[in-house]
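Anyone else keep sequences and structure tokens together like this?

Example one:
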Amino acid sequence: MIKIRTVIPSFAVGVALVLASAPAALAEESVPGVAASVPEEISSQRADYVPQSGGAEGASLLAYPTGCGLVVLSYKGNLDAVGSVASSCPYNVTQIKHKVTIDRSRWYGWERLAENGTSAYETTSHGTIVSWYCGDKGTYTYKVVGQGEINNAGQWSTAAAYDEARYDC
């Protein structure tokens, strides 16, 4: 299982941060630019455990390698609903793949607005952004789901997180 923690960085409204399974000391270290505690008004937001999914043909995908992490942001850009996902490791990995989607809450459920997928090779970090023009659309809750996969010397691992934000475009 991967623990999702919601924290507030100095540059965004909200962020979902996933730290890979690691020694407790690593998970408790402070992250530069991120507040040490979660303000009361958002403390109930996105604090869940997400089970790992199984891979093809019964092969099991592992959680992100120790020390690697995944961050998902949902925020309003000028006249756009914007979502981003970023993965980072303290060492070079073979490949990082992302898929990021942005949905909005409707009376009938979640409406898919946009998605984007990208890959990077031989890197320590990778980021992917998706946006959707929301000018004059009204006030909605937007959900960004970010999924990441890391190939570290032939061993694939995965992580996923989401973030929601409500705003008027």
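And example two:
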Amino acid sequence: MKKFLIMMLLFMLPLASASQLEFYPNENAFEEFLSDGKTYYVITGESDYSKAWGWYVDEKLSRFKDKGDEVLVLVGNVYDNPEMKKLWNLTELPPEASLKPSVIVLNNLVFLTGDENNIYLIEKAFSQHYRFRNREEYTLLFAGILLSLFFAFLFSRHGTYTHFFYLLVMSLFALWISNSMPFTIGEDFLKNTFQSALLGNKGSLLSFALNSYFQVYSPTEEALLVLHLFILFFTSTLIFFTAPKPYRELGFLVFGLMFASPSFRGSITDLSTSISVFLLVLVAALTLNAKFTEESPKVIGHVFLLSLIVAAGSLVWPYLIVFPFFTFFVFPTKSIRNSIYVGLSITFFILGINVFSIPTISLSFDPSSLLVFLREGILQLILISYLLFNFRRSVLNMRGGKALFFWLLVVFIPLLAYSSQLFPMVQYISSALAVRLICELTLQT
């Protein structure tokens, strides 16, 4: 029976697609290995890819088991892992089978195989298994509560009710987190960004930053989940800073309009999308709260920092580079500060792309995302259309935040028909614009 199963695996492996991970004898055997309480020891191959994923496997298994010598875990393939080559005959498979992504569990022996083109797929064996240490759980909970109270205190200075609405948003955020699993790793992110971070490549700024993060924390899904939660937390917080300054409490309304969309909530379960949304909200918050009209060395420092953040963010989400140009037109001033902002942002961005690669932007016409936005963002669109029509004279002279969001929306809505990844950004921009129009235009009458 054992030989029959092995031969069936041998027969199936050549037919497996690049996105398929094989288990032998089955996935349950691997799950039993995770929970059997035996100690383990990892031996990686000699290639960079085997060493990188061996680092991941070692750190991941340490969350389930103690290190020791009861079970030997081999990572790589027979061509780059001498120890695996010695023991491979126990699988009764040909050597070339070790080039396929697979998890093979034998008595006190586990093979995690693949070559440099597909070894990243061994992550899928662990992707549904999370285990936090008690220290991590307490630290995460304490940090979340402390930061929430800090920002609530900060917002208490911005109005009578702002801090109450902020705590309400944090409560809704915690409720959403506790009732769902807002975290997925896309295969493209896994193969490129995550794998590059494990390898220590400086291909992209995001992979470089993740590698630094992994050196401090651990190269596991748990670390990515913690990062994801904090990104969502700070995104929800920064939304209040993009509401009109006298009415910060209306950040609650912006949050509500955004999260009322099921597609928005679904899209930000992807880490890379959440990072892009966070960068957009961060730059919007910094831009709307920067003092572009004052003359002081401190303000010049703010412009320098904002330019650096925009350029760095554009290396992760290239669309962000348009922000300085819109700011130049919607914050008119006799000072050359806006020109400095645009010039520094472009300069830093050009310097950045000489060091790091930027994500490719693929555009192909597909109106489905645009139709989803027209359906799920109908409330914002009705409010925007009504206010723009009734205050059309004021629209011609719009300046500041409402003009910034208006022109961003004008540009991004057509692009949404060519890039579905822009949906959460358009949802945020339309929500922020609707709230600003309600506050600023209606109060002019």
